[in-house]
Structure prediction request, 127 residues.
Amino acid sequence: MVIKNDAQYREYKNTLETIIAKGAELGDMELLPLVDKNEFIRLTDAIYEWEAAYHPLPGKVSSLITDEIKKQMVDKRIKQKEAARMLGISESRVSELLNGKRALNLNIAKRLRDCFGIPADFILDHI
Prediction:
């Protein structure tokens, strides 16, 4: 199950809230019918993936990641403006990212891998 847009995200969250309310009424989520338990798991997995990609938790980027981005920019002679274009974000956001003030989301991590050659394992290990 993959969420395709914000409207579907909100719909899934509302459905999840309904299941949680039903479990609360019963006194325990374990008392829910198997169908509701399975739907709860499906919805939470899809919502988690969506939020990780589009609504990341606030936080700073590891200096190991920002140092590697800067190194790649120097090695490839990429200016901040070009980096912004490659990553599909604004110059100010690149600046925030490079200064550790902006958290990475999944899309930017993928572009760092594809455009800058920074291994995904390195990014994941240092988030």
Notes: The two ends are 25 Å apart (CA to CA). The mean pLDDT is 87. Residues 6-26 form the longest helix (21 residues). The domain at 63-125 is CATH 1.10.260.40 (434 Repressor (Amino-terminal Domain)).
